[in-house]
Amino acid sequence: MREVYRTRSAFGELMVREDRRCRQLLLNGTLQGAMYLDDPYSGPTGYPRYFLLGPVLTGPPGRVLFLGLGAGEGIRCFHHAYPHCRIEVAELDPEVVRVAREYFTLPAGPQVEVTVAEGREYVARAGGGYDLIFLDAYAGDAIPYGLVTVEFLRLVRERLKPGGMAVCTLPAVRWQGS
Question: How much is the pTM?
C-alpha cells in the first residue's frame, strides 16, 4: 500500500494509505477503518455490517448516535441502509473528521451531523430519544476509561428511548501468557 496522506493531530499521527482496491486509515499505526474504493459501503474488515444488527432488535431507527468516527465505516453503512435516519456523531479529534470527509466519503447533509466533542460531554448535554447509541471510540486497542464507567453507562441508558439499545464495539484483545 502506498501512503496517500499523513498528518499529526493533538491525538497522534494519522495516515491514509491505499492500493488499487482499498483505502485505510491508521492512527498511531493502528488500523481505524477501511473501505473499498469502488464500493464505500463495504470494506475488507466486514466491520460496518455489525452496526446493522442493532435495528434487527430495536426496529427501524429514527435517531442514532455514534461515539467515535474513525474512517466513518459504521456511519456510511448505516446511512446507506437507513437514509432517513438522523445520525449524530461525536468525534474528539477534528483532524479525524476532516480526513473522514476528504478521504472516506463521510455522508454529508441534514441526516448526518458530526460534532467535534468528547463522548461523555456530548452525551451529558444531548437530549434523549435515541433508538441506538453506538460506543465505537478507541485509544489504540482500548476503550477510553471515561466511556466505560458505571456513571457514563447510566447516562447513556437515560438518553435511549424506551426499547432503545446501546451497542459497544470492542477492540481486539491480545492475550499474553499461557
Answer: 0.91
Q: What is the pLDDT of residues 12-67, one digit of tens each?
A: 999 999 999 999 999 999 888 899 999 988 888 877 778 888 899 889 999 999 99
Strands 63-67 and 130-135: parallel
At 67, which amino acid appears? L
CA separation for the pair 170, 102 (Å, rounded): 26
pLDDT value of residue 178: 40
Query: Would you put residue 116 in left (φ > 0), alpha (ψ -120 to 50) or beta?
Result: beta
3-class secondary-structure state, position 80: helix
Spell out the residues 6+ positions from residue 125 whose beta carbon is closer than 8 angstroms to its own: none
Buried b or exposed e, range 65-90, using 16+ CB within 10 angstroms = bbbbbbbbbbbbbbbebbeebbbbbb
Q: Is 174 exposed, middle or buried (0-12, 13-18, 19+ CB in 10 A)?
A: exposed
Query: pLDDT (tens digit, 9 = 90+) per residue, 79-99?
Result: 999 999 999 999 999 999 999
Q: Coil, strand, or helix at residue 94?
A: helix
Backbone phi and psi for residue 81, each to the nearest 5 degrees, phi listed first: -75, -35
